[in-house]
Write a structure and sequence with these properties.
The chain has one helix and 18 strands. By secondary structure, it is mainly β. The chain has two domains: 88 residues, Sandwich (Immunoglobulin-like); 98 residues, Immunoglobulin-like, CATH 2.60.40. The strands form five sheets. A five-stranded mixed β-sheet has the order 12-18-17-14-15, with no helix packed on it. Strands 2-4-8-7 form a four-stranded antiparallel β-sheet, with no helix packed on it.
Amino acid sequence: MIWALVACEGVEELINANRPPELDDQGIIVSADRVAPFDTVTASISATNPVEGPLFYEWSAAGGSTGGRFIQPADSSLVRWIAPLLGGSYRMTVKVSNNRRSVEASKAIEVVSSAKPLVDIREPANDAYFVVNQQIPVEATAQHENGISWVRLLVSKDGRDSLIQQLDGNAAGVYRFDGLRAYRALVGKAILLVEAQAANPMQTKGNDSVIINIEGIIEGKNEP
């Protein structure tokens, strides 16, 4: 009976010796989870070690083309992270280890880019010709690290802008407008402008434009 008790205690000690660190239910706590490029974020994690010995911390961040950078030293329960230039969703991760096992936690951080959306009109080509009443197909792309809120098509004639159509942002980044017709007031040269707004609090705007030519229809005289 004594042997069995000793054996059980030995097994329990072995199990406890292989237990990973225990993390607080809050996980990673950050000073802000929505920041501008190059902002500094303070991050911390609360962990306890169920076995004797020290805890080791390994931090990383990934997303976009870079994960920003940690201010050294970055091997403790509290670190400072500098957000990257490019906006987008980033994931900060910490790996907490004892002498036997490890456990991980992660936290999403949104970097709000101040850059303008990139807009490119694919159709029509610059200096394209149309005739009165002809449908003018317009296709454009709009891209931004934080996504696109909306895209607008405007036509400018004699210094006055008219809103033709507005579309909501989409994941594909391709927008096709079908609401423009070559009406008589546009005869001559006109400017097509596609404008996009970033889907973030900065609400930066970018645009692209092309010149089009509208020709009127000359009615011929009846032959005798």
